[in-house]
Write a structure and sequence with these properties.
This protein is of the alpha/beta class and 395 residues long. Helices cover 36% and strands 17% of the residues. The protein has helices at 34-49, 76-83, 96-104, 120-124, 127-134, 169-183, 198-208, 222-228, 243-256, 297-308, 329-345, 354-362, 377-383, 389-392; strands at 2-3, 13-17, 52-56, 88-90, 110-113, 139-142, 165-167, 189-193, 214-217, 232-233, 259-261, 265-269, 278-282, 285-286, 291-295, 312-316, 348-351, 371-372.
Length: 395
């Protein structure tokens, strides 16, 4: 696999698949530019070499072709400011304007193409569409790890039309850090699994049981484990059909000698709202009309103690409904514990994309852990052992 540091972009037009799928507010302003800033080193390296950059990305999930809401034109000015140069924009990704502007692009210039998903062919992995895109540049750079698990036209299929296929810095860092966790973890190795459903994490949990010393379970999925063991969970989130699986995982952890750590207590609310009435109860003691929304103080203490002794930490999924400040205490406490272990204990900490990345960044700790992944689903699938089309296409 070619990397940026082993390739000279002098005189090259680099067609770069980036992940600019960023959140926008009602005024089309970016509310979190993490994915954009992550790609800047890749773009700057190519420009420094004497190349030019043609950026292609998707934004959102447009249903019926071009829509104002999902136009990448909203990113032109913010991207220009970050790069310190005026970014050009093509109002199509394969049409006449894209072809003309790409042909006229000079060294040191950057062109942003319109949303790839305005064409249904992108997600279908259409070969003809991929070939049309490929004609815009003479080297393909994939720096969109967040979409690497999709066999889309721009993320994987396009690779066949290039002799030179280069791995961008984001892609390289994501793969290297995931590999470090999976195959070179210093012990004790602690994985913290949160989020709503066991079904979303089952393959990863099963694989981690062969690798970790400690597995901490938090978030909505804990209530399925609790119910399976005969506990009362009130109106809390439940995957009833996954209760046998929960018991199976508990048994597997015992057999493999993994320290499986569950919450000791829960913070509950009487409605799904930040201003809900709250009370803290022991795990398995939630009354009928209440619902678990966060881990309690005893759980925080137990989890923090384990994290503080760890040398490798993987965190994927929040401890509760962290979007509500009144139920974000557990998630924030875990973020603090991971930061402390990283800074004071020299632990290697990987934050696994999605909600976990949002939580750690919202708490202001993003630059105080070892690595924050930009890929949610892609990282999960990579760590589950699956081949990612976007990574395979770079070979």
């Amino acid at each position: 696999m070619k990397t940026l540091d082993t390739y000279d972009f002098l005189g090259k037009k680099a067609l770069i698949r980036v992940d600019f799928n960023v959140p926008l507010n009602d005024k089309y302003e970016i509310t979190d530019d993490t994915r954009i800033t992550a790609t800047i080193p890749t773009i700057k390296k190519i420009l420094k070499d004497g190349g030019s950059c043609i950026l292609m990305s998707h934004l959102g999930r447009p249903k019926d072709g071009p829509t104002e809401k999902y136009s990448l034109k909203h990113l032109v000015n913010p991207l220009s400011v970050i790069l310190g140069l005026q970014v050009k924009f093509a109002d199509d990704c394969i049409g006449a304007s894209a072809i003309e502007q790409a042909a006229n692009l000079k060294a040191g210039e950057v062109l942003l193409l319109e949303n790839l998903r305005f064409y249904k062919e992108e997600e279908k992995g259409d070969v003809v569409f991929a070939e049309k895109l490929s004609k815009l540049g003479n080297v393909w750079v994939n720096d969109a790890f967040g979409t690497a698990h999709r066999a889309h036209a721009s993320t994987a299929v396009i690779g066949q039309f290039f002799t030179d296929r280069v791995c961008g810095y984001v892609m390289q860092a994501e793969v290297e850090n995931a590999e470090k966790i999976l195959n070179n973890a210093e012990r004790p190795f602690t994985a913290i699994m949160g989020g709503a459903k066991i079904s979303d994490k089952i393959l990863l949990i099963e694989r981690l049981l062969d690798k970790v010393d400690n597995l901490i379970i938090g978030g909505g999925m804990t209530y399925t484990f609790t119910k399976a063991q005969g506990g009362a969970i009130g109106k809390s989130l439940l995957e009833a059909d996954k209760m046998p699986l929960a018991l199976e995982l508990i048994e597997k952890a015992k057999i493999k000698g993994v320290n499986l750590i569950m919450p000791l207590d829960n913070v509950c609310g009487d409605k799904f709202s930040n201003d809900a009435n709250r009370m803290t109860v022991a795990t398995g003691q939630i009354s009928e009309e209440w619902e678990g929304f966060d881990i309690g103080p005893e759980s925080v203490k137990l989890f923090t103690e384990t994290i503080s002794k760890s040398k490798t930490i993987l965190w994927n999924g929040p401890m509760g409904v962290f979007e509500f400040p009144n139920f974000a205490t557990g998630t924030n406490a875990i973020a603090e514990a991971v930061v402390k272990a990283t800074e004071e204990n020299g632990a290697f900490s990987l934050i696994g994309g999605g909600d976990s990345a949002s939580a750690i960044n919202n708490a202001g700790y993003g630059d105080r852990v070892s690595y924050v992944s930009t890929g949610g689903g892609a990282l999960l699938e990579y760590m589950e052992g699956k081949t990612l089309p976007g990574v395979a296409a770079l070979a």
